Amino acid sequence: MAYTEERAFELVSAAHERGRLGHAFLITGDAVAGGERLAARMIEMVNGGGEDVTSGLDLFGEAPPPEPKSLAELEGDLVSVVRPEMKSRRISVKQMRELERRLHQSSERDKWKIGVVIDADRMGVEAENAFLKTLEEPPDRCLMLLVTSSPERLLPTILSRCVRLPLMTEDAREEYEGERELVEALSRIAKNGLGSVSGALSIKAAFSKLLDKRKSTISKANEAAYKDEVTTYKQTTEGDWLKRREEYYKALTESEYLLERSRYIDILIGWLGDVVRAKVEVETLDYPKQAAVTKAVAETEDLETLLRRMEALEKLRGLLETNVSEQLALEVGFMKAFG
């Protein structure tokens, strides 16, 4: 599921307070969703903003909340920001090597070394592969933030090593395709409680139906884009360039599908998270329109079981990133999460 900037910051703040903050985050969304601003807030969260709280006092002697600094203001010894080079609009291998070097340098005690990659989809395969080593074996107290509006262009190996924070504006919150249908189907099936085989398989069927629909949409869009390139360049290119473009669009379709599948699992986790919040009487919900259902489910489940169900979905996500049969993994995973 996608989050507003404020909700995403609440989630990472809670993880940081528990000492469970990940070392790499993929922040996605269009320019107005607030990806760079969220990255700046995360940097100030882990390293402190260093604002002078004695300045700017109001008439009552109270300091208003400080405005978050920009990435440009935060950049320095501890914070490295990589952007596409002006001429090529690409992020080079050289830039990523330099970022890795800086991340491996020593830093002040209790301070984090932070690397931010803006428009991360502009890295290209060589730069991404150069960065993989750091993603796989990060230095201590190191935080990497990848910001992009086109995560489908990144290698699956990059995607699998980052905690995903898809962003959307408050106005677009209800517009994510398939989210409303999946949440409504889940609430409808779970209205009588969780724990049945038929219920678990019904949820899995609704999930698969929506996912197949999205896959078909993605495939048609990329097939149309490839046909347009064939029409435009068939008479002007030599060698196997169009063949490579065909392979590119096939890989893009698979990458976009895998990202959508992960987003749909995020939606399920978010819904179960609302059940947990209802159980512990937290009012803030991801899906307030389903509050009556999630509260009813919470009354029939103990907290330990609910947390185990959420864990089963996280394990399912990890299992799906292996070579296991997708349908078998989904069936087993949904039985553990909802059966």
Automatic annotation (TrEMBL):
Keywords: Coiled coil
Pfam families given in the database record: DNA_pol3_delta2 (PF13177)
Coiled coil location: 296-323
InterPro entries tied to this protein: DNA_Rep/Repair_Clamp_Loader, P-loop_NTPase
PANTHER family: DNA POLYMERASE III SUBUNIT DELTA, REPLICATION FACTOR C / DNA POLYMERASE III GAMMA-TAU SUBUNIT
Record-given protein name: DNA-directed DNA polymerase
The organism of origin for this protein: Rubritalea halochordaticola
Lineage: Bacteria, Pseudomonadati, Verrucomicrobiota, Verrucomicrobiia, Verrucomicrobiales
